[in-house]
Amino acid sequence: MQAGRQATAIWREVPQGSAEDERRLFEKLAQDMMHVQLRTRQRCKAAGIQRAFHAKPIFASIDATLRFNDDLPADFRAGFAQPGKSYPAIVRFSNASGSGQADYKPDLRGAALRIKVSDKEQHDLLATNFPVSHARDARQFIAFAKATAGGTIGKIIGLVGLAFRFGPVEVIRMLRNVSAGRNRKVRSVALETFWSRGAIRWGETTAVRYLLRPVPSAAPAPDPSDTDASYLSNEFAARLAAGDVRFELCVQPFIDERSTPIEDTAVEWSETVSPPVKVAELTITQPSAGTAEAFTNSRIIDELAFNPWNTTDEFRPLGNLNRARKVVYDASAAHRLAYRWRTEAPLRNRVLGAIARQSFVAINRFVEWHKLPLRLSLLNLDAFRYVLRQKNLIGTEAVEAPPEARPEPQPPIAEQVRQTRTYDGTYNDLSAPKMGAVGATFGRNLKPAYAPDLFDTPNPVVVAEKLLHRETFIPARSLNILAAAWIQFQVHDWVNHARNPLGTNDIVVPLPPGMKWTNSVGGKPEQVMRIAGNQELDRGPGWPPVYFSNAASHWWDGSEVYGPSSAKAMMLREGAKIRLVDNHLPLDIKGFEVTGFNESWWLGLSAMHTLFAREHNLLCDELRSRYKNWDDERIYQTARLIVSALIAKIHTVEWTPAVLATRAIEVGLSSNWNGPPASDWVTKFGLWLLDEHASTGIPKTMPDHHTAPYSLTEDFTTVYRMHPLLPDDYCFYHHRSGEKIAEKGFLDIQGANADDIMRSFGLRNTLYSFGVAHPGAIALHNFPKSLLKLERDNEIIDLSVVDIVRTRRRGVPRYNDFRAGLHRPRIRSFEEVTASPEDARLLKQIYGDVDKIDTVVGLLSEPAPAGFGFSDTAFRIFILMASRRLQSDRFLTVDYRPEIYSPFGIDWIANNGMTSLILRHCPDLASVLPRTQSAFAPWRPIVPASTDPAMGGAKP
What we know:
This protein is of the alpha+beta class and about 950 residues long. It is built from 29 helices and 19 strands.
């Protein structure tokens, strides 16, 4: 009767702030818990990361059963808890310390229980052999753990810090509780009572704390040993050999907030106030397997990640400490299992780095970074990157707040995805399998600026016509057209905003007076321009429609070559190789070349895709000759890894330095991959002092997402709008004689025409012709004419207008706010935006207000540093995201190793680049490729014999 009355008492949770506020706090606490694990590892000189607590197992078994009482009170019948029901269980007893210390050392003991109801429903119960927590909530718990994780001096300093944070009285109370729990002599864990401390829900209306206590008939144990480091393990094994070990599972119902609080775990639920009610019995039997198998099972149990949120909503944990446990325990387990990493900056880096950053803020008021001496400019860039990592990574993926119950514990990671990339990008981060995968939301570098009243102000058609359209081709003389083809090849791997079909949720752009536009092939002219809308993510009321998912994976995984899904990849394969027909890509029914991604197709993309498909197949032959016992799947996946990493390396150390042609960028980006030059001890010493993480090259470091889960961003997409690189006119030459083969316009070499030209001219002539010609400069008035009426999926688009419209609609801030958000000074006049007085006049005429200048326009207007192919503002996104794409990717960091890539693969990537790649497949081009520059610099043109007087030809 009393239990029934108590079980109906009304209880409630009182979060600390909003659910989102708590989630952010819990994420920080998760990082702090990983810090505790690192400190413990350092203090104990352990080989690897261990559990933050309960590191040493005393006993673990799969041979346990939980059976509910036949006379289970009605108030406690809920979910799987039904009279007479019996379930298999896994049990683990442990010492509470985060280090594997001897059983006779002062310590608390813990019990973890996993109850298997079905394959779809399991419940984890966690308890400790002291009835109350030393911490009132999660903040106190983690702070105490951090303060006491170091050595003696570190603990003293940590406890003093706690006294300032929580007050001396609270610190003394915490120390007393911990001391009381740890200093008890334990004879046997089979004779201990284990309390849950925090409360859980039990059914629809009841809240309880639970406890495991030995059955009254439990046999006594000998005195505890002072010399046997494993006496508790040995005692339990001996006890189990003599018979089953049994515990009673009891619950204490909530009474009232004062005597049985939900949120404050430092208050004991007294048995006088809330007498325990037995609801079930746990029976642990002697292992049914042999000794060797039992030992293996214990190892497997020790790998499990117990979490009280592995349960159903009917039994979900309650209270602040419990709410934190889901994300904190998940992070701790992932850290222990090497699914997630935390890198601690040395003290010298934290102190000297902060001083250096403040110094560069002062220096940059007078001298821009690119005008500093080389080594200072490199350190200045490192300071920029640090600030951007701290302030300009904004996660946008929908997250769980408040935490939700998880009936199925996170399953073991499949062995296949540990060593190969998935096609859709899942499991790159093993602790967050969907991070960066196909369908993941584009992140942000700047807070979105949703301004629907400015969508058409000023009119994007007018902006494009007056400021973007090409009048006369402006060449980028330091580059060749392969640089233009390359970046489109890369963008197709990185970003793909899914579009609705034209006629479904269109963006309607008003046209200037007197202008009409034909929106679809065969359609009638209209007084508006219609653009197929992107597929927005609905985040619910109060969220602006500026969030979009990526139809490609966010990772640098060669998806443009291999496809974004296993179905697409299998369609492209023949055994381990990519299917080629006469060494060319096959065609689809529309005449397009079949590859991982073939939208916006033209000859430059055909050349890149053909080159890398051939490279993949050559690698398959090389791998097969070296590893004769490998099957097709392993050869294919290893070749895919090698090709993807080679692409990332080429972009990092060749393409980007070619576009940003300064010594600082060349050294900086080479260091991103290889670390600073071995001979440059000054730079290496400077990085050792300020940023040790940057002194080795990213592939030799651990994954690090810094301040937000990994994703590519809408701001990143904006700065990669580089359509001016494409010329409208192309001339093709023979790679041996230099004789002209043909002249073509862009529309002649795009779409289904690309394959005809590729097969007619051949890869060698195509590469040579692109190599000796310049792309367009990334500047105003240089948008290709060929893209102003482009046919795509039955839609006719002006891509210059689309670039402006998309950027506005996606909530990318306008140019001045974009600059300021990237820590650059705001502009105050149109003359500051551009070096051209005429362009300044046009900008003023069109915008009227410098704060209204479109980001796309401002980035093209801004005078670039010497040698740069684009603006310094756009470059801020580059220095942040270029490193991030490498640093977050485990296949380019911790799993960039011979065991995954093969020793041959690691050597292949180290010793190859764009030039060697081209020469491997087109050796005839050896004499024309640049000797001391990348393959994206202009190639040497061959003078045709007919125009060379020395060869007897006609004089020019």
